[in-house]
Structures are given as structure tokens and as C-alpha cells.
Design brief:
The complex is a heterotetramer. Chain C is of the alpha/beta class. Chain C is 33% helix and 24% strand. Chain C contains 18 helices and 20 strands. In chain C, strands 6-7-8-3-9-10 form a 6-stranded mixed sheet, with helices on both faces. Chain C has a 6-stranded mixed sheet with strand order 16-17-18-13-19-20, with helices on both faces. Chain C has a 4-stranded antiparallel sheet with strand order 2-1-4-5, with helices on one face. By secondary structure, chain D is mainly α. Chain D has one domain: ABC transporter involved in vitamin B12 uptake, BtuC (Orthogonal Bundle), CATH 1.10.3470. Chain D has 14 helices and no strands. The longest helix of chain D is centred in the C-terminal third of the chain and has 34 residues. The relative contact order of chain D is 0.20. Classes of the chains: A mainly alpha, B alpha/beta, C alpha/beta, D mainly alpha.
């Protein structure tokens, strides 16, 4: 890691990485917005951006783990809602609960939901899209029938817990630090551990994975538990950040989560993509929301822009893949 | 290849032919027919006793929505008072089409009184009309439908009243002059749009000449979106003096954002919110005062209006009067509208007296 | 000879395995000794692949067991087999296209650094070392996607080597390799045997079996026929045991007077793949397209048929020019292609025999644009009979048939269209000797009936035995056009390796 | 192996569904007050017409191994445009033609991305799901157009002679039969199964895979546009958020109907039975005053059961067979 050569290498790797495309888009977006409205980059504003993205980032990273292995988890919004309500309920009825315990319980409940998905997908060998579409309805129904229209307000929860959503360390929101930790941990795991790489292998070619002796069922099961746990964590963070929780929290967020992952370069049919990309995708989507609000663009355009972005992202991935294939083809014919 | 071209050509010709036939003559906007109005028929008997054992069904915009849970709770209390049987049904997502399905079900169940809040003033009209033809009395509350589709609308406050109240609140908080922004719910929320329009009108009056609405932002009644929109407003209008958010989700989200930001105490915030959600922010000084009607009373009044209709005491015609339990006497206004009363303003002094 | 008394490294003992009502393998037993290469031969459908999958732990035997060092193999699937030191190279490569070559080799066995992290540098170095051993140069960091079939097969072999397996099972590893690569592979296998490993080698190429292996096991119809030292047998004996009868002439070429030019290709070019390809095929003629794997032969016929687009040139059938990239148009003008990859391209494995056999003729079989089902059934039965397909019911899924019978279904679906031009790409790859002869007879008869046949084949005897004319490709160009008289093993190989200028 | 067993069971899945549907209808008729009445039948059918319509082309699309999640957004955008065109003073007949045409164009956009650029339809239509809904809001904003002629809006829920079967349901039968015949009794339909199982082999058989998929997406768009017209007239309200989220209900019905999400398997009859089953269950539970949250749990449970049960039965069957032969 010393000398000019490695610097050049790092730069080159940056340019060839899929993530760099999103970074460029993000930078451009922030530049344009800042030119129009200079205090878009004020400390408070940046803090807000990070805060706003944190929950989506956690969800998108969890989703990445599942999507990489050629599955999908559509139930994350419902899990988030369920855990957010459960956390609120716990803290309003037992305000003395330490924040750490509340977080752990929330993550645990999310993981339990993940276990349900994982068992159905891995053991019953049923397509994840169908199962998680089913649990999307089912978890939300459980949430509703538990809440029965009850709303938990900020005043019902202890300040120490709500602080999780507002405190900053050296000016950086705690929420963003938690999200970043999750990104780094999952990203590091996926890149550097055998079981992480096996998820890519499963997503890339499931039949080959089975022949290679990879415990496919167990890995897929684990990926759903991880995704559920991250949705659980997101639920706890949601409760802390917004302070107001009812049974509808997180409704419809699953599409944003999938969109963030796809925009971040996670292939919808598995095998490639990274947690970092997904996190950047989530950050980009959130920033677009904030930018449009700041630029005072007709808010009706936002959804259309997000849709266009998804199409652009997958189109770009395709283009890059075709280019790379052409390059390889050229090279191998020279070697022959 | 040639076959492909032929297919395309045949298709084009077919489409053209259709267009030509369609364009020559046909139904245009001016030539449309209109439904026969079925306004209040029959005559009222002001002395009739309230019938016992009425089936009263509350159909909110969305079940498990805290606001409607409280409002329907009021309806339940009222129904118990006049010894009817109460139930609450409704979709878990706020959509007009699911409401139609529930109205049909209620009509099928021979319900005596349907009390509903419309997700769309037009979409549920047909279903309500056929429910009424099947014998049900229909009361709308909170959000009205077209007047010809229901018997009575129980309005939480007149739109003018709310607009006036909101303008007065913000005016007092920003010292009568400055730029303000509005943080609304969804772009097509009927109530909010009506109120915003009337607020603009109110601001044209000379005493509010110093106040200017710079923009309307939409938080979609979603916490995250409302947060973002609040941030956006403060970013794009550094000299903003105040925000009005006439929706409970929006005002709570905006308050929560302000309370932890550098703008706390510098930018005024008011709107329509529930005391439970807002208590913390009133106490920490983020919000000086805000308003809301009592949703429980709203449901309570709607239930009584329904009972009066079903008992034949009123028919929904203007000028008729009816007794609404603890709330006392109400008179039906033009278009079959009953107004609950002026909104309550909550501030440090009184907020602890309320729990909803 | 003292090995006879030594305990075998691995023993297949009384293994039976059924799928549904079909017994794929019945009571098969044979030993594998350390230091020996052991050939497993038999016709397609004889049960070799099932044995491979049992050894790999993919299938659990219904009865019997696999013993390694006298220990029964656990039932934990492929992982248990790997733990016992068994490595398998499958007939079809099983790589992860999105992952790097190095990761493909070491998946699940990556060298670890501190805290259980994968040591990428070590992994890359190990991969380079393996490729050096095999004498090939493949960039370990490039993704597996886009590798040629031969390179994929080499990665598979590297994968098996990397696991330091004591038992190496190779299911037709040489099918896609060039002669040089085969020699290198054999050197590695011999070295492994020298280190005491046992190798199970499955191949249809008897020259390879006889040059590499010390012992041969013959299977027929799911049962064991014999296990003997190779030295005690001749090719003829082995073939007789495989088919259970004498094989009639393998290349029953009929002499035909060629008619008019039916297929004409001019200046066909696809950048980076092949360039300036021109030839013609007459009615009644069989033209072979020979060359090494990777020379671009399959790519040419794919372009001719319209699967792939091309950048320049033209294809004419009976004078009419075919549009670029439209197989439907090619079919309409009487071209048929029996593709290289039967399972992936030739058949829809999940559909029934009947549906597959009639897939190319849906329009002609429909009445007033509607399909009733009866016409399809009749047509399928008729063609299954003509090609002597062995099947249970026509509604059975085609995947349940043996490889040879599957190939017959592919032929049936194309012959039913009554083609003027029949293109066959490796028509007998992975097919047993008996069926091979049947296919050759069929091609010969079709040519006699006036069909123009274009045949891509890597098997020189097949090329020399069947073709009226041989076109040889090298690196995307046609380097020689040889008449039947001119074509010899030498002349074809010279052109295929680019040593002859045109 | 499980796949084979799965197939054996699933070939009869539509029959199973019809039996379950009949059982639900009979049980509900006996136990739930007001279920077995003409009026209720009318309500039930009116509720499922839009889902049934959209499910028709979607069935074919899913059989080819693709998916179209943008259907509800297409419906919404078509509804919004219908409102604007009506306000602009065009005749309603012309508006209907234009709106269905618009739907076809929106479908063609999906088709171009999927067939020309070879992008996964799941990702593409998640993108257009957001984009079309966004455009709907851009077109109509927060407005609602409601002044459609009364004769048209009542026609949308009017009934055939005896008063219990809505015309809309009868009219839906026409495309249902068309799609059914196309899928099950034409060369085109047969080829859809082949390409759903193995697109490469289908292409090698001379089947125009891309073209078939292209037209299916166009059909899906056009039918969604038609459903948009129906929706707008039935609720007498053109709004940008019409039918938001309906895509999940449609996909649920198609999957419940026995169509494999991986393609290559399913029948139109099964899908129609699935649509009716979901509708009947919800209707009966609503009449029985079961809360909305329980309805969601039941819907989710049915969906999961529709894939888990055939799988489990298949596994049990192979196991049983193996034990018998062993």
C-alpha cells in the first residue's frame, strides 16, 4: 500500500468498480443542489441527510445479503413495522428497559421473522418472492391486530431511548454511525469470509453450489435471518427516530429497499453486488428526496425520477456487462 | 419480415378506423347526463323517540389509524348510550376501492346506520347510494362525499373556521409578519386542499398583509417524507418564520425535526395535531400552540346524527334540530352539514387536561 | 500385482439407485486402488453418470454403499464426499460465472489469514501455481463468465487438483479439450497416480482409455458387466461388452451424386469470432466443418441458423437470402440445426417428449390456427417410432430419457420439419457406440434423400468417415477445403493447427 | 426429483383450486349471513373484475418466466390521463380508445427494456412501477376528475337482466376466453411454455422469443389501460392514486392460481379460480365481520399455502413411493 503504483491501482479500481458510478451521481446531485441552494451542504443539512438515509441503508444492506443469493425479501417493511411497534410497546410499558436491551430484543424479533421466511424458503424450497409476498401480508396483519389502532408517542418512551435517534457524536448522528457500522460489518463479511463468498456462489449458480458441497439451504436460511435482523434493527431505529409509532410504520418501504439495492448495483438475480453499493444506493435515493424538496421541484416528480433512476441503473449495468464481455472475447481470441 | 410489416399495417388501419368512428359524435363533457338527485325525502318527526337496537357501523378511512380509533371510540360510547349495537369495520390501507367493498358488505348486512369518512369524495358515492336505497342511513364525518350521496355530514369544524384558526395561530407566533410555508398531507387530500385554499383567502385580508405563503410541501402523511420536506423547507427558505401543518402526522414529524435542530425556537410551528403526540414538543418549547377538534366528540356526534336519521327525527334537511347526548342540541345547516364546533387550541396551559 | 491384495482406496459395494420406477443402477460393485487410473465405460444410459453422482454424494444409494478406506461415506451430501477426499469433475462444467476464476477453484476451501479472513493474495498465488502445473495461462482474477468451454473444463480440473483429493472422478473431461490440453491433463493424472491417488476416468474415446488407464469397468443397462486390467482386453472386446452385440459398420456412408447448391455462405464475418467464411453445400452432400475446439465452428453454424447476429456477409438457401438473426426465418426456408448442447439448446428438459418433438412444427400441426392435441400426439408417436426412441410414455418428461434417446428426440423434432438443409453440431457427442452408428446411418440416408447436411464434429474418424467434403477452420477462418479423397487425419490436423496456407 | 413430483401434483392444481373454491362458496353460503344472495354475488364479481382482467395477460407473461409489476401503476396513469382528456373536452369514446392505446404504449416501454436490452423484467417493472405512478401524479396532480356522464358510470356496475351478474364480469369473460384459447390451443401459447422452461432451447427451435414477449407486455399494458377505464368509471373518479398497490393482489392471485414464478407452468383456468377464491374468501370474511388485519393474514397464508402445499404433497409422495419400492 505504498508508492505511486498502488495509488494508481486504487484509482483504477475505483473507476472500474460499479459503486463509483453511484458516487459520481451522488456528487453531481449534491453539487447541483448546492449551487442552487448553498446551505444544502451546511452541517445541519448533511446531518439530516445522513439521518434520513440511515434506516433505508440498514434495510438495503440486509436485503443485499438475501438478493446476492438469488432470493428476495419483500417482507422487510412489515417486519420493520412490527418491530417498531413492539419496541414502542415495550418501552412504554417498561420505561426502565435499558436502550441496549430494547435494541437487542428488536433485532431478535426481526431475526425471528427472518427465521419464518428462511424456514419456508430454504426447507420447503419455495420461491422467496412468493413466500415473502405472503409474509408481507401476514406480518403486517399481525402488527395491525396487535396494535388495534394504538399509537405510541414520543412522550410514552424514555428520553434515553429517543436520544438514539437524535444524539450526535462529534457532530455525526448516532443513527448514521450505527448504519455505517452495519454496512462495514456486512460488507466486510460478504467479501472476506467463506460463508459470505458462498452466498455469491449460490446466487451465481445454485446448481453448481449444491454440487460443490456448499450447504445451500443453511446459507440461504442464514441470509434471511440476517435480513430479518437488519429489518428489526431498522424498526428499533425507526421508533427512536420518529418517536411516533403505529401499525402502519414502514408500509410500502420494501420497494424503496429493493430499488436502493438495484440502483446500488446488486444484481436482482444474484451473484454480484456489494453492501457498500446498496448503502450508496440508499443514500442516493434519500438525497434525491431531499434535493427535490430543496430545489422546490414539483414533488409529484419525485417518484417518476426514482423509477427512471432504477431503469438507468439496470441499463447501465447491462451496458457495462456487455462491454466487459466484448473485451474478454477480444482478449481470449488473441490468446488462442 | 413482410408478415411483420403486414401485421403492423393492419393494426394501424384498425386503430385509425376506431379513432375516426370515435371522433365523429360521441359523449363529450358538455353533453353528459347527470344523476337524478336523491336528496332528503319524506318528512321528519322531531318528536320521534330514538329507536333502540340500531345497527351502527363505523367505516373510517383506515382501521387501526389512531385518529380514527379515538373518533370511532366516541361513536361507540354514543351508540351504547342509545342502546344500539356498534361495530367498526374498514380496510387496513386508506383506499377508496376497499371502502366500496366494505360499504357493499354493510349494505348486504342490512346495517341501519353507516358512519364513514371518505377516502375519495366521488369513488364511494355509488356504493353509498345503493346502500341508502337498501335502507341504510349514511352519515359522513371528517371527510365528506358529494352531498347527494349521504344524508348528513358531520363536519369537525367549518373549513373557514379551521383556516381562520390556523392563520391566527401562526400570525400570533411570528408576530404578524413574515414568510410561512405549509406542510400538508398527500397532494390530493381533499380536506387539506380546501383548508389551504381558504387560508390563502384569509391571508388576503389587510390585517395579515405581512404574511406570505411561500410554498406548500407534501409529507404524504408519512413520517420520513414529512421530515425530509421540513428539512427542505428550512433549507430553501432561510428566512422562513413559520410552518403550518394542518395534518397530525405532518405536524408531529415537523415538531420532532425542529426540536432537535438549530431552528428550534426560531421557526414557529403550528397546525392540527393530537395532544398526546404534541405534548412533548409543547413542553420543550418547540411548539407554542396548535389546534384540533376532539375526535371522540366528532364520532360521538356522528353516531347521534345517524340514530336521529334512522329514528325519523331528522331527514337531513337544513334547519332540522336534534339532541346529541352530552354535546347538546345541534342544527343541520345547508347541504345537510352539521358542524361540531370551533377547534380547541392546545398550549402549555391546557394540554395536560387532554388524553387522545 | 500385489495391488490385487492391497485394500482398495475406495470401494463401490452393491450400489443400487432408482428414480421413480426406473432403476438407473443395479447392484454395482468395483474397487478403486491408489495409484491407478480406472476407466468406467458403457453406453449412454448405462448408469455411469449415476455412479458419478453417488460417488460425489449428490445421490444417496437406495441400497449398498461407497466405502473410503473401509469407512462408509456419510449421508451429508457433497460435503461428506469432499471431506472423504473425493473430487469430481462433471461432464458439464459447474462454475460460478460471477466469481473470479481463483474463487471458483477454492470455493469453500479458500486459504485463510488472520481471524478467519480469506487470504486473497495466497489464493491467487495458489491458483497460478495450479495453472502452471496444468501448463495453461488463465488470469485467476478474471470472472468465470465468458470462459471458453475448454478453459472452463481446465478450471474444473484445477478445482479438483486443489482439493488434494485422494480419489479423482472425471466424467468425460476431455470432450472439449484440444489434443495438447489432453496430453497435459494426462500428465497431471499420471503424476497424481504416482502420488498414490486413485482416478476414475469416464470416456467414450477408447484410445484415451487404453493409453491412460490400468483397469476398466464396463457397465450395461445399469448393471456391472466386468472389471479387468486394461492389458487383458482389446478395444473390440470392450465394445462388445458395452453393447452386448457386435457393432455393425460405424460409418455407413452411402455414395450420392450431389445436386444443386442449397446452402450458400459468403463472406460471413463476426468481429472477434470468425471472419470471411464462405462455402456451399449441395443437395445430397455431407460437408464436415472440422477444426479444434474454439476455432469458431459452432459460432459459424449458429450465425448461419440465425441464433447469433453477424457483422458482414450473407447466407442463402436455394438462392433466397436469409435475414440476419432470425432462426424463425431460417426454419421457414427449410434449415434445421441440431445444436451442440442438447440439454440447454436442443430440448426443453421440463416438457414432455411429445411437446419437444412437435415444438418445431406447431403451426403445421394446428388447424385453423388451433392446436387440438391429437395431431401432435400422432406426429410425435410416428417420429419416435421412425427413430426408434426408447420411451415409457410420450407424456413423460424428456429429461427422463437417456442421452442417446434425447438426441434422437432432437433429431426427430428437426427431421419432422422436412428440412432442405440439416446442420448438426457434434451430433454424436456423449452418445454410446450403438446409437452413434444409428445416427450416422440416419445422416447418410437423409443425404441420399437429397438433404444438404452440414456437420460440425471434433471426432476425426467421424469427419473422415461421413463427409463428402471437409472444411477445416483455424482461429475463425477456413484454412482448407478438402475433398473426400484429400482428407486424411494428417491433412485435416495440419489445417486445423494452422500449418497449411490456403 | 421434487420438481417431477411437483409437476405431477400441479398439473391438477387448477382442479384442486376449483374444488377448494366450491367448498369455500358452499361453506360460506351455509355459515355466513348474506353471502348466498344475488346482490352479494354482484358485489363480489365487481370487486374482482379489475384483478381478473389484469391477471389474464400477466398469467401468460409469468408462464414465459417474466413478470410485470407495473400493471397497477399503468392503470393509475391511464386513469389520470383519462381524466385529463375528458376535462380537455374529448369525446369519451375517443378517450377510451386513446387510453387503451396509451396502456399499450406503456407496455411497449416495458417490452423494449425487457426484450431489446435483455434486462430482467422484475427490475424493469419495479422501475416503471415507480415511474408510471409518478407520471400519473405529474399528469393529474392532486386533482380528481369525477364528472363523467352518469350513464357511463352506472354502466360500469350495471347488471345483466336478473340483477346479480354485472355486465363487467360478463364482458371480462370475452378476453378471458381469448387469452385462454391463445394460451392453451394455439402454437403461440404452446411456445410460451417452452420459452418459460428454457428460452434458449425455444430460440433454437425457431420460436421468436423476444417478439412473443414483446407483444405480451404490450397486451399487459393495453389490458391494464382497459382496467383503468373500468376502474375510473366504476368509482366515477379519475385519480393518480387509483389502484395503488393492486399489483400485489394480482400477482398473489396469479401465483395462487398455480402459475410457477419461474415460468413454464400454469393454466388460465387455475388463475381465474385463484382470483375468485381470493375474492370469495375476502368477501365471506368481511361479511362475517372479520377484521381487516385478519384478512391480510389469511391472504398471505393462502399465498404461502399455494406453493408450500403442492411442494409438501410432492415430497410426501416421492417419499412414499420410495419406501414402497425399497
Amino acid at each position: 500500500m505504498s508508492g505511486r503504483g498502488s495509488v494508481v491501482g486504487v484509482v483504477r479500481r475505483f473507476w472500474s468498480a460499479r459503486e463509483s458510478g453511484i458516487v459520481v451521481a451522488l456528487v453531481l446531485l449534491v453539487l447541483v443542489t448546492t449551487v442552487d441552494s448553498p446551505n444544502f451542504l451546511s452541517p445541519q443539512s448533511v446531518r439530516d441527510l445522513l439521518l434520513g438515509a440511515a434506516i433505508l441503508v440498514v434495510l438495503a444492506v440486509g436485503q443485499t445479503v438475501v438478493v446476492i443469493s438469488r432470493n428476495i425479501d419483500l417482507s422487510v417493511g412489515s417486519v420493520l413495522g412490527l418491530v417498531a411497534f413492539a419496541t414502542g410497546k415495550l418501552l412504554s410499558s417498561a420505561p426502565a428497559t435499558p436502550t441496549a436491551v430494547a435494541v437487542l430484543l428488536g433485532v431478535g424479533l426481526g431475526a425471528v421473522c427472518g427465521v419464518v421466511n428462511g424456514v419456508l424458503v430454504a426447507a420447503a424450497r419455495v420461491p422467496a418472492l412468493v413466500i415473502t409476498l405472503g409474509t408481507l401480508y401476514a406480518f403486517r396483519g399481525v402488527d395491525h391486530s396487535w396494535a388495534r389502532g394504538e399509537q405510541i408517542n414520543a412522550s410514552d418512551m424514555p428520553r434515553s431511548f429517543l436520544g438514539l435517534g437524535t444524539w450526535t457524536v462529534l457532530g455525526v448522528p448516532v443513527l448514521a454511525i450505527i448504519a455505517l457500522t452495519v454496512v462495514l460489518a456486512v460488507g466486510f463479511y460478504l467479501r472476506n469470509y467463506r460463508s459470505g463468498r458462498e452466498l455469491y456462489a449460490i446466487g451465481s449458480e445454485p446448481a453448481a453450489a449444491r454440487l460443490s458441497g456448499i450447504p445451500v439451504g443453511r446459507r440461504v436460511f442464514t441470509s434471511f435471518v440476517v435480513c430479518g435482523a437488519s429489518a428489526g434493527l431498522a424498526g428499533v431505529l425507526y421508533a427512536a427516530r420518529f418517536g411516533t409509532v403505529d401499525a402502519t410504520a414502514g408500509t410500502g418501504i420494501e420497494l424503496q429497499v429493493v430499488a436502493a439495492a438495484v440502483v446500488g448495483g446488486v444484481a436482482i438475480f444474484g451473484g454480484s453486488g456489494s453492501a457498500y453499493g446498496a448503502a450508496l444506493g440508499a443514500l442516493l435515493l434519500t438525497t434525491i428526496g431531499s434535493s427535490l424538496a430543496v430545489l422546490r421541484i414539483n414533488p409529484f416528480w419525485q417518484q417518476a425520477v426514482v423509477g427512471g433512476l432504477i431503469l438507468a441503473a439496470i441499463g447501465l449495468d447491462r451496458l457495462l456487462a456487455v462491454r466487459a464481455a466484448n473485451r474478454l472475447r477480444g482478449r481470449s481470441s488473441h490468446d488462442a | 419480415m413482410s408478415q411483420h410489416q403486414r401485421t403492423v399495417r393492419v393494426g394501424l388501419i384498425a386503430v385509425l378506423a376506431l379513432l375516426v368512428t370515435a371522433a365523429c359524435g360521441g359523449t363529450t363533457r358538455g353533453s353528459g347526463d347527470s344523476p337524478t338527485s336523491n336528496r332528503a325525502t319524506g318528512s321528519a318527526n322531531p318528536d320521534a323517540a330514538l329507536v333502540e337496537g340500531l345497527d351502527v357501523a363505523f367505516l373510517p378511512k383506515q382501521v387501526n389509524n389512531p385518529y380514527f380509533t379515538v373518533a370511532d371510540g366516541g361513536g361507540k360510547a354514543a351508540t351504547e348510550e342509545f342502546k344500539g349495537s356498534y361495530k367498526e369495520v374498514g380496510p387496513s390501507e386508506a383506499s377508496a376501492s376497499s371502502q366500496v367493498s366494505y360499504i357493499n358488505t354493510l349494505s348486504q348486512q342490512q346495517t341501519d346506520v353507516i358512519v364513514t369518512s371518505a377516502n375519495d369524495p366521488n369513488a364511494i358515492c355509488g356504493a353509498l347510494t345503493s346502500a341508502r336505497q337498501a335502507g341504510a342511513k349514511v352519515v359522513t364525518f371528517d371527510s365528506d362525499t358529494k352531498p347527494e350521496c349521504r344524508d348528513v355530514f358531520v363536519n369537525q369544524a367549518t373549513a373557514e373556521g379551521i383556516a381562520k384558526n390556523q392563520v391566527e395561530l401562526i400570525s400570533a407566533q411570528i408576530g404578524g409578519a413574515g414568510k410561512i410555508a405549509i406542510l400538508s398531507a398527500t397532494p390530493n387530500a381533499t380536506n387539506q386542499n380546501a383548508w389551504i385554499e381558504l387560508m390563502r383567502e384569509e391571508l388576503r385580508k389587510p390585517e395579515h398583509a405581512g404574511i406570505e405563503i411561500v410554498t406548500v410541501a407534501y409529507g404524504n402523511d408519512d413520517d420520513q417524507k414529512s421530515f425530509q420536506e421540513t428539512q427542505g423547507l428550512l433549507r430553501s427558505y432561510p428566512d422562513l418564520k413559520g410552518i403550518v401543518s394542518p395534518t397530525t402526522v405532518g405536524v408531529a414529524a415537523a415538531a420532532r425535526y425542529l426540536s432537535t435542530s438549530e431552528y428550534k425556537g426560531k421557526v414557529a410551528l403550528t397546525g392540527l395535531g393530537t395532544p398526546n403526540q404534541m405534548r412533548e414538543f409543547v413542553k420543550d418549547g418547540t411548539v407554542e400552540a396548535f389546534a384540533l377538534w376532539n375526535p371522540a366528540d366528532l364520532g360521538y356526534l356522528a353516531a347521534y346524527a345517524g340514530a336521529a336519521l334512522a329514528s325519523g327525527r331528522i331527514t337531513g334537511a337544513a334547519g332540522e334540530e336534534f339532541e346529541a347526548g352530552k354535546l347538546g342540541e345541534y342544527t343541520i345547516g345547508a347541504d345537510g352539514v352539521v358542524v361540531l364546533g370551533p377547534p380547541t387550541v392546545f398550549d402549555q396551559g391546557n394540554i395536560d387536561q387532554f388524553d387522545f | 500385482m500385489d495391488r490385487e491384495r492391497a485394500a482398495p482406496l475406495l470401494e463401490v459395494r452393491g450400489v443400487s439407485k432408482s428414480f421413480g420406477a426406473v432403476a438407473a443402477v443395479r447392484e454395482v460393485s468395483f474397487p478403486l486402488y491408489g495409484g491407478e487410473a480406472h476407466a468406467l465405460v458403457g453406453e449412454n444410459g448405462a448408469g455411469k453418470s449415476t455412479i458419478v453422482k453417488v460417488l460425489a454424494g449428490v445421490h444417496e444409494p437406495d441400497t449398498g454403499a461407497v466405502l473410503v478406506d473401509g469407512q462408509e461415506l456419510g449421508s451429508a451430501g457433497p460435503a461428506a464426499a469432499q471431506a472423504a477426499g473425493i473430487a469430481v469433475i462433471y461432464q458439464e462444467p459447474t462454475l460460478f460465472p460471477d466469481l473470479s476464476v481463483a474463487e471458483n477453484i477454492f470455493m469453500g476451501r479458500q486459504p485463510l489469514g488472520r481471524f478467519g479472513r480469506i487470504d486473497r493474495a495466497a489464493m491467487k498465488a495458489d491458483a497460478v501455481r495450479l495453472f502452471d502445473r496444468l501448463g495453461v495461462r488463465i488470469d485467476p482474477e478474471r470472472p468465470a463468465r465468458g470462459l471458453s468451454i475448454a478453459d472452463q473444463q481446465l478450471v474444473e480440473i484445477a478445482k479438483a487438483l486443489s482439493s488434494d483429493a485422494r480419489v479423482l472422478v472425471m466424467d468425460e473431461p476431455t470432450a472439449a479439450l484440444s489434443g495438447v490440453e489432453v496430453e497435459r491433463l494426462f500428465a497431471v493424472v499420471r503424476a497424481l497416480c504416482g502420488q498414490g491417488a486413485a482416478v476414475l476416468f469416464i470416456s467414450h474415446r477408447f484410445d484415451e482409455v487404453f493409453s491412460l488407464c490400468q483397469r476398466v469397468t464396463v457397465m450395461r443397462d445399469g448393471g456391472l458387466v466386468s472389471t479387468d486390467p486394461v492389458a487383458d482386453l482389446t478395444v473390440d472386446q470392450v465394445v462388445r461388452r458395452m453393447v452386448g452385440r457386435d457393432v455393425s459398420t460405424l460409418f455407413p456412408k452411402e455414395e450420392v451424386e450431389p445436386g444443386d447448391v442449397v446452402l450458400e455462405v459468403r463472406g460471413l464475418t463476426s468481429r472477434g469470432v470468425f471472419a470471411d467464411i464462405g462455402f456451399s453445400v449441395r443437395a445430397g452432400e455431407i460437408v464436415a466443418l472440422a477444426g479444434l475446439v474454439g476455432a469458431g465452428r459452432s459460432e459459424v453454424v449458429r450465425a448461419v441458423f440465425g441464433i447469433d447476429r453477424y457483422d458482414a456477409g450473407e447466407v442463402r438457401v436455394a438462392g433466397e437470402r436469409l435475414p440476419v438473426g432470425s432462426p424463425a426465418a431460417a426454419v421457414a426456408s427449410g434449415v434445421a440445426l441440431v445444436p451442440e448442447d442438447r440439454r440447454q439448446q436442443g430440448l426443453v428438459m421440463e416438457l414432455s417428449i411429445e411437446r419437444n418433438a412437435t415444438l418445431t412444427r406447431l403451426k403445421p400441426l394446428s388447424r385453423l390456427g388451433f392446436l387440438g392435441g391429437r395431431a401432435e400426439r400422432r406426429a410425435a408417436r410416428e417420429w419416435a417410432r421412425r427413430l426408434q426412441v426408447k420411451y415409457g410414455r410420450l407424456s413423460d418428461v424428456v429429461g427422463t430419457l437417456s442421452g442417446g434417446n434425447q438426441q434422437k428426440v432432437v433429431l426427430a423434432k428437426w427431421l419432422a420439419t422436412g428440412p432442405r438443409v440439416l446442420i448438426v453440431d457434434e451430433p454424436t457427442r456423449g452418445i454410446d457406440v450403438g446409437t452413434k452408428a444409428e445416427v450416422h446411418r440416419l445422416l447418410s440416408r437423409l443425404a441420399a434423400d437429397g438433404v444438404a447436411v452440414l456437420m460440425v464434429s471434433s471426432e476425426l474418424p467421424e469427419v473422415l468417415g461421413m463427409a463428402d467434403r471437409v472444411l477445416v477452420m483455424h482461429e475463425g477462418r477456413i484454412t482448407a477445403s478438402l475433398s473426400r479423397a484429400e482428407a486424411t487425419e494428417e491433412s485435416v490436423m495440419f489445417a486445423a493447427t494452422g500449418q497449411v496456407a490456403v | 426429483m421434487t420438481r417431477d413430483a411437483l409437476r405431477a401434483v400441479s398439473t391438477r392444481w387448477d382442479t384442486v383450486l376449483l374444488v377448494v373454491l366450491a367448498a369455500v362458496v358452499v361453506t360460506a353460503g351455509l355459515l355466513v349471513d348474506g353471502f348466498a344472495s344475488g346482490r352479494n354475488l354482484q358485489f363480489l364479481l365487481l370487486d374482482v373484475v379489475a384483478i381478473a382482467l389484469i391477471a389474464l395477460p400477466l398469467t401468460l407473461i409469468v408462464i414465459t418466466g417474466e413478470i410485470d409489476l407495473s400493471v397497477a401503476s399503468t392503470l393509475g396513469l391511464c386513469s389520470a390521463v383519462m381524466g385529463q382528456l375528458w376535462v380537455a373536452g374529448l369525446s369519451l369514446e375517443l378517450v377510451v380508445v386513446l387510453v387503451v392505446g396509451l396502456g399499450a404504449v406503456l407496455g411497449a416501454v416495458n417490452a423494449v427494456f425487457v426484450t431489446r436490452f435483455a434486462l430482467p423484467s422484475l427490475a424493469v417493472t419495479i422501475g416503471t412501477l415507480a415511474a408510471y405512478r409518478g407520471l400519473a401524479f405529474v399528469v393529474l396532480g392532486d386533482q380528481a376528475v369525477a364528472d363523467f356522464p352518469f350513464s357511463w358510470t352506472t354502466a360500469a356496475s350495471s347488471t345483466v337482466a336478473d340483477g346479480s351478474v354485472p355486465w363487467a364480469a360478463v364482458v371480462t369473460l370475452v378476453p378471458a376466453v381469448v387469452f385462454g384459447v391463445v394460451l392453451h390451443a394455439t402454437p403461440f401459447g404452446r411456445s410460451l411454455y417452452a420459452m418459460g422452461n428454457n428460452a434458449e432451447a425455444a430460440a433454437f427451435s425457431g420460436i421468436r422469443v423476444a417478439r412473443a414477449k414483446f407483444w405480451l407486455f404490450v397486451a399487459s399494458g393495453a389490458v391494464s389501460g382497459l382496467a383503468g377505464v373500468y376502474w375510473t368509471l366504476r368509482f366515477a373518479s379519475a385519480r393518480a392514486d387509483n389502484a395503488a398497490g393492486l399489483e400485489l393482489a394480482v400477482v398473489a392471485a396469479v401465483l395462487l392460481g398455480g402459475v410457477s414464478i419461474f415460468g413454464g407452468r400454469g393454466t388460465l383456468l387455475g388463475v381465474l379460480a385463484g382470483v375468485l377464491l381470493l375474492g370469495a374468501v375476502r368477501n365471506a370474511l368481511q361479511l362475517a365481520d372479520v377484521a381487516a388485519d385478519t384478512l391480510d393474514v389469511v391472504t398471505g397464508g393462502l399465498l404461502i399455502a399455494s406453493v408450500v402445499v403442492p411442494n409438501a404433497v410432492g415430497l410426501a409422495r416421492t417419499r412414499w413411493r420410495r419406501r414402497r419400492t425399497a
